[in-house]
Amino acid sequence: MNRIKKIFQNRSEKVIPFLTAGYPSKETTVKMVLAAEESGAAMVELGMPFSDPLADGPIIQEASLIAIENGVNLQWILEVVAEIRKQSEIPLALMGYINPVIKYGVDKFIKDCKNAGVDGLIIPDLPLEEAEEIVKLANESKICIILLVAPNTANERIREISKMAETLIYCVAILGITGGKGAHKTELKKYLKRVEEFSNCPFVVGFGIKERADVIEINRMAHGAVVGSAIIEQLKNCNEPVKTIRNYIQKLTKGIE
Amino acid sequence: MSYNQPDNRGHFEKFGGKFVPETLIPAINELEQLYSEIKDDPLFQDELSSLLKEYSGRPTPLYFAKQISEELGFNVYLKREDLNHTGAHKINNALGQILLAKRMGKTRIIAETGAGMHGVATATVAAQFGLECIVYMGEEDIRRQKLNVFKMNLLGAEIRPVTSGSKTLKDATNEAIRDWVTNVENTYYLIGSVVGPHPYPMMVRDFQSIIGRETKEQFAKSQELPNVLIACVGGGSNAIGMFYLFLEEDVRLVGVEAAGLGVETEEHAATMAKGEFGVLHGSASYLLQTEDGQIKLPHSVSAGLDYPGVGPEHSYLKSTGRVEYVSATDEEAIQSFQWLSEKEGILPALETSHALAFLKQRDNNIQKGENVVICLSGRGDKDVHTVADYLGKKI
Lengths: 257, 395
Fold this sequence. Notes:
The complex is a heterodimer of chains A (257) and B (395). In chain A, 49% of the residues lie in helices and 14% in strands.
């Protein structure tokens, strides 16, 4: 069974860190993913860097550019995933924009993802309207496409999105880009209640999540909390990225350093 | 007219579409809905027509350029979009879209700009309608287009310098989209070219198609149809505006891209010549990109053509072969700028100068005696500093 599908069969607190692949360096990515798992991460999102990340704020933009300068591309990321798979069964989703995937070849990419051991794909510039073809291909390879939902997504559309995604959807907590301020509490609650009611599948929440308290709060209302920019920020100008990841994710999962 | 692109999903076959974050879907769907309602609404069309006439000064003349025609041996007509209010074709679209923004009840207008002509047009219509206006502009473009920056300030717009990436139009567009994602509830994104997610490429084309409609009428007074239409292509709004109503006529259509230092170098913005299929800024089109699918930094002496993508409909028209896409270098554009100034007393925009350069290219295949219309998309005042720099002169 798909590893993402498997872990979402049970409702338990989940922390899902996002790491830009190849940031701060290519050498640390495998170690950071393994450290995240040891620190209690339920699943990891690996960012596929793109030159023009239009849903991302300055923190992830900068990490993406550095990763590109480090020579990161999709081939390399798939090698990294295969490397992780030798040592770990943690669910892995790749997150990135559609253009590099098109350039790689959508068909080939899905096949190579399957062979490497990728479980899911999150593509922020691929809404329901454009997702059909890739969802079909991914289904055939037992890879889930984790479609996004936003606070202004209408109820019926939430249902449609969750039907197409099948396994998991990703709720953007705010109207905005990554790395911004957190969501307004009562509004977030109302929004996630709507998602709970209309979604046919489990859902995780991301954007603006930084601390243990956010993780607890989000997990009460949803099936998992994604932490992105807050982690990438920790890695900026940091000498020991693996240790930093270990400490930060422990703080998020257990409240201890 | 049997040409009916795009389809109802906003696709020009494999090009176009709505490749945007979910947060923007409600906004573009609302826009699409509203546009389909008002498109044929006589009240809306009347309001727009009277603004175009009384505010912008349309129809713009179709001028027979006698001196250069004599030199070239064929007849050159200039469709004088430079004589519009704000000095370029950009106002045609800005007026159309500001009426939509008003109907949608939006209070805040954002725009991206390259050379600043679209920024000026947007700031102008926002001032006229009393709406807050924020223009994103690359730092590099702010440097080369100081005059337009100051104009936008005078018009009450806030200019937000963009320092990411190439610091030009591509990055200004990224920032405008990020702003839109964040402020989508009260903000209207007034896109300046036939790019972006559906319905923008279609809508901007429709607003710009007045260029071709007038040309057709004006030309019909003397003969039937021109033989060749030529326009410069960055995103491609003036070109599509000129070509659209001629797509099914027996008229040769030529789009001229920026070849920068030459298409054989790495320093150009010739998306049609060197681009590959991909997705940028919400739609699928040809793009300048690396082997890994990262967007390449384009180069052109003209800020308005300095863009790594091109409109989805142009991509489609290239794929069908209906429109020929060629290119002109920085050098050719500068020479044409001087040439038209000296011969006809008209300073063309550097963007437009690329279209003019085609007239002098030896392999342009224009026959003696043919009638050629150039879309003179904008005036060149904004470019005099760039031209002076290029020629090594101080002003």
